[in-house]
Amino acid sequence: MPFTIETSDWMYSIIYEHFLDKNDIHNANKTAERYINNTMAHFAYFDSISQQDYGRAIRNIYLCHDNILNARFLPIIIQKLKDQNYQFISVDQALKVSVYGQKEYFQGRTGISWLYHWMNNQNDIIRYSQAEPNIDEDRKLYDEILKQNKR
Description:
Elements: E1 5-6, H1 9-21, H2 25-54, E2 62-63, H3 68-83, H4 91-95, H5 114-117, H6 122-130, H7 136-150
Parallel strand pairs: 1-2
Helix pairs in contact: 1-2, 1-7, 2-3
């Protein structure tokens, strides 16, 4: 399934659940807050790519996973998106837009936005992906949690 927006919700959910398991509600809530802010930043960022590449907003497909984090906080994200005048449609409706019929150039294994899949220039993919909202601190925390769980 092509998707245009992905926000590493799976990673944030692992961090969130880690803190819940430790009964560290403060850090669990901080993680949720960072996730919500990150999601909103990613929507804005990928919208900016579609504006640059297509001269308009496209009908995005948002990849999010079934997890505790989204069960609790996806309604907040949806409301924030509605507050910014996003509208919600079915995947079938989104896929009817011609952008989803483009040739796919990306052949890698990672789950990156299809906005990158449709780029024929590797330098553009690198440039855009490096400019995505920064979640490095959360990735470090995620890696630390994985190391702790292996012990």
